[in-house]
Amino acid sequence: MVKERVIDALAEVYDPELDEPITRLGFVSSCEVSDDGDVEVVLRLPTPQCAPNFAFLMAADARRVVGRLPEVREVTVTLEDHYTGAEINAAIGRGDGFTGAFPGECVDDDLAALRELFLRKALVARESRLCESLLANGATSEEIAAYRLEDLPNDVPDAQRCVELRRHLGLPDHPQAPAFVLPDGRPLAPADIERWLRTARLVRMSLEVNGGICRSLLQVRHGVAIDDPEEVLR
Amino acid sequence: MYEKDGESYFVVDAHQHFWDASPDNWVKGQEQYAKGWIECFHAYMGLGPPETHWPIEKFMKYSEEDYVHDVFEEGHIDAGVLQSTYLKEWYTDGFNTVERNAKMVEKYPDKLIANGRFDPREGEAGLKQLEEDAKRYKLKGVKVYTAEWYKGSRGWKLSDPEAQIFLDKCKELGIRNVHAHKGPTIWPLDKDGFDVKDIDVAATSNPELNFIVEHVGLPRIEDFCFMATQEPNVYAGLAVVIGGLMHARPRFFAKVMGELLFWVGEDKMLFGSDYGIWEPKWQVEGFIDWTMPDTEEYSDYPHPTTDSKKKIMGLNAAKLYDIEVPAELQLQNGGTPAAKDDAQLVESA
Questions:
Q1: Which residue in the set B47, B187, B189 is minimally distant from A52, CB to CB?
Q2: pTM, whole model, 2 decimals?
Q3: What ipTM score was computed for the predicted complex, to two decimals?
Q4: What are phi and psi of B94, to 5 degrees?
């Protein structure tokens, strides 16, 4: 039972580059809970060379979300089969930030700037999927620009995630806020939609392709086959 | 030359390797990195058709006979550019050095070109080495890998002032083509290692040089496209795009090609097999056969013609490397791949 809650918590950890939960990507290779409530999570990325900064964020976030559960005592998160695994694991174990893992090699201890950059890309990608789907259903540019968050179908994961991303970014996320905004929060004007969509769908394609390559590599290396990412391609 | 349906294609493989990643070449104490690097490449091979997969032992060090068979005899390659990647912290004699590549060029001078490399962190000694390499091997191009680990540093940027000294040296030595390969680490480590902004800076400051961005900036293909559309001297290296996606993820492949054709254009895209990661045969044959899907989803994208494919598969790279193309293999309508000047005209229009 505790294990289920731990897995649920881990589903809140997103790969910052792909904006997908690490559980869906197959990055959690094992999760053990002892009778006393000690949790051991092992993360495994598609390659040992995956970028250390993103690897660190996922490991640190995993430790944080699991540690928040009241029924959990100690949390150990281990990144396996990674070039900088030793540095990252030691720092995470000590509760250090990124500079603790790589002293002298970085400045931004909580990787806030990097995280924000990718949250913005994720928002663009998600909005473009929503926008394309609305256009395909006959919406006009004027209607899209007039959409509020509350008008989006609330059973669509992209819509829910857009609200979360806006909250993380400090952008308006109340129900009456415009549904489609530029990465800096300005509402999208009807006249700009076509041009915006041309670039936004490139960002979306990039994220989806990267997710596809990550899944392919995990499948080749470890026989892990999960959720075909092409399902998101419409 | 490759012939299909009455059309003949001159094929230039602008990105290929002849490496030695065998255990004998692993640096003592650094085995996990040397092994991890080649195993990662081997996993990428798994994205190609199953009948083209090799066992890891062969993949670590393939022979000259393998190379000649896969590239020239079976692979339809008329001319190849052997890229250099040193990684000497992990591989004693380097992963694939210009010396190793040049030995192949000596044997097949009509078909091969060896590219050198530089690393601005090597300072004066590196500059001297670049000069010697350029003279000895008549370099027309270099490959730079910005994520290489070197004496405690995990990377560098093409926009570093030290890098400009090396780019100036390239110009002085007649090196025109810079193949930029980004990787997962950079200095400082909290920045996005794959970011291509530094190539943008270098391309703007060095209009005499051509910057070929390998694997089209993947995983930052969007940033690459936004940059390439503004920089007349930035080219898309298709290594990994064809090898990693055409078979494994055909719908993604079509989308990536569509975006590249739209943003970068068919005059600035270069085929590269990335051999030995993938054999060229299935890539060349598959790409010539490939067409943009004829459905609504892809209707916005440019649909490549036979001429587009001729440019991408060889004519564009032949131009960058002054490779002579037989008259019958040129574009028959008299057109030639657009030169940098043409692109500038469009840019300033």
A1: B189
A2: 0.94
A3: 0.94
A4: 90, 160
